[in-house]
Design brief:
Radius of gyration: 38 Å
Shape: elongated
Helix content: 25-40%
Structural class: alpha+beta
Strand content: 15-25%
CATH architecture of one domain: 2-Layer Sandwich
CATH class of one domain: Alpha Beta
Largest sheet: 4 strands, antiparallel
Length: about 190
């Protein structure tokens, strides 16, 4: 009996030693260092808008050339002769269309809120009518305790003056008093 106990103890020690050697974790998963390469933010240079030059032509100073009867009149196009006195360079004021940026780094835009509908079919009908008339219309759905609501928007535009002009046009066309609001990205 004593030999059996000593034999069992020896087998147990050898087995535990072998288990430690086999399952030490060194041959398993090795730690791989993952290096993420995120490019630096590009530097944007402000580009000045070009100044457009339009020649102003005064009445009576343009000579109209007579057309000659040739076989191929499209080969030579008649050119108007403008006197040096008539050509006046008028610079057009460059409009600053650089939008201001929001805290997220996105341009700030404006939309027209056309209405909020609890009946989704009415809201969808107005949205489809706006799209068929050529406007950029979209809807946002929200839910509350009283049920869901659909809000119809037209836009977005960067220039507030353009938004006000479109609002007046939409007010006359659809008899709906639109509200000008800041454009917000829809959270996903």
């Amino acid at each position: 009996m004593r030999q059996r106990l000593i034999g069992g103890l020896v087998v147990l020690v050898i087995a535990s030693t072998m288990m430690i050697l086999i399952f030490d974790g060194g041959g398993g998963y090795s730690s791989i260092a993952v290096i993420e390469r995120i490019p630096e933010r590009p530097l944007l240079e402000k580009i000045d808008p070009p100044i457009q030059v339009i020649p102003q032509i005064r009445g009576g100073s343009v000579d109209t050339p007579e057309l000659s009867s040739r076989k191929n009149p499209s080969a030579e196009l008649p050119q108007n002769k403008v006197s040096n006195e008539a050509a006046v360079i008028i610079p057009i004021e460059a409009i600053d269309e650089t939008p201001s940026l929001s805290s997220e780094g996105l341009p700030e835009g404006f939309v027209i809120q056309m209405g909020v509908f609890s009946n989704f079919s009415n809201g969808e009908r107005l949205r489809l009518q706006l799209i068929s008339d050529g406007y950029k219309a979209y809807s946002r759905k929200s839910s509350s305790e009283n049920g869901g609501r659909m809000t119809i928007f037209v836009g977005p535009w960067l220039d507030r003056n353009r938004v006000e002009a479109f609002r007046e046009e939409l007010n006359q066309k659809y008899q709906v008093l639109g509200l000008i609001k800041r454009y917000e990205l829809e959270s996903l």
